[in-house]
Design a protein that fits this description.
Blueprint (H helix, E strand, L loop, with lengths): L1 E10 L2 E11 L4 E6 L5 H8 L7 E6 L2 E2 L5 H7 L1 E3 L12 H8 L1 H7 L1 H14 L1 H5 L10 H13 L5 E5 L7 H18 L2 E6 L2 H7 L2 E6 L2 E7 H6 L1 H7 L4
Parallel strand pairs: 3-8, 3-9, 6-7, 7-8
Antiparallel strand pairs: 1-2, 1-4, 4-5, 9-10
The structure holds adenosine-5'-triphosphate.
Adenosine-5'-triphosphate binds next to strand 2 and helix 1.
């Protein structure tokens, strides 16, 4: 479904992505792990059209989408959940979902928008309960669920997730990851998941890539990465 071939990207003169190649097949959960500053967020931003790519190809459904505008990519079926839970805090849960679904509304009208919101409430019942509450007053886990729901409003086929576990308690992390697994199982969603919480990410992923200073240094099945001595030492905090 998605294939990156020899991607290079830089901030000014600083090269951040160096010859990165990876692929995500339809229906897979693939995780990208690595230390702070390895370039994981930059890679997601490159795929979703927010970061210029200087060299290489990004193929989605057979078409080269490198340097395509984010809004157009949403129409193609790629959507990135906002980083660091960038929800609209002074607006209600309902208003946030309406904003997330602006494209649905523009393309298909208000009735479809209402239907999509109803589907999100079925998927995240806590958001239905909190629909009139200001988003800024939600718990961290609820804010993360809202961010994911806002992204899903556009019915992507490929969901890009940037550190959904950031700042959340272990129990909530487990809940969020269960939701991601369920979305794949029930909706056939394909997911590229960037995580510093390598342990949790590898437990739900099919395959994983390890990134270090802008390069992919290891790629393997997720269960093999969990047993890989180098990965265990550097990213799982175990010998
Ligand atoms: P983290 O998990 O901390 O977000 P990351 O693996 O996602 O790390 P990136 O955020 O992609 O890493 O950053 C990769 C490198 O690019 C870092 O050295 C960072 O300092 C640099 N960088 C990121 N954003 C910018 C920017 N806007 N301008 C210049 N350099 C940047």
């Amino acid at each position: 479904m998605l294939r990156l071939v020899n991607i290079h990207s830089a901030y000014g003169l600083v090269r951040v992505l160096k010859n990165v190649s990876l692929h995500v097949d339809g229906g897979e959960i693939v995780t990208l792990i690595g230390a702070n500053g390895a370039g994981k967020t930059t890679l997601l931003r490159a795929i979703s059209g927010l970061q210029p790519v200087q060299e290489g190809r990004i193929i989605f459904d057979g078409r080269d989408i490198a340097n395509t505008r984010a809004e157009k990519l949403v129409r193609f079926g790629i959507a990135q959940a906002p980083e660091g839970r960038q929800i609209f805090r002074p607006m209600t849960v309902m208003e946030n979902l309406e904003l997330g679904g602006y494209l649905v509304c523009r393309l298909h009208g208000r009735k479809q928008l209402r239907r999509a919101i109803g589907e999100m409430f079925d998927m995240f019942p806590i958001l239905r309960e909190r629909q009139d509450q200001f988003a800024g007053t939600l718990s961290g886990g609820e804010q993360q669920m809202l961010a994911i729901a806002m992204t899903l409003m556009n019915k992507p086929r490929l969901l890009l997730l940037d550190e959904p576990s950031m700042g959340l308690a272990p129990l909530i992390v487990r809940e969020i990851f269960e939701i991601i697994s369920r979305l794949r199982k029930d909706e056939g969603l394909t997911v590229l998941l960037v995580e510093q919480n390598a342990n949790a990410a590898l437990r739900i992923a099919d395959r994983g890539y390890v990134m270090e200073t802008g390069k992919i240094i290891i790629q393997d099945r997720a269960d093999a990465l969990l047993e890989n001595p180098e990965v265990r030492r550097a990213y799982l905090g175990r010998d």
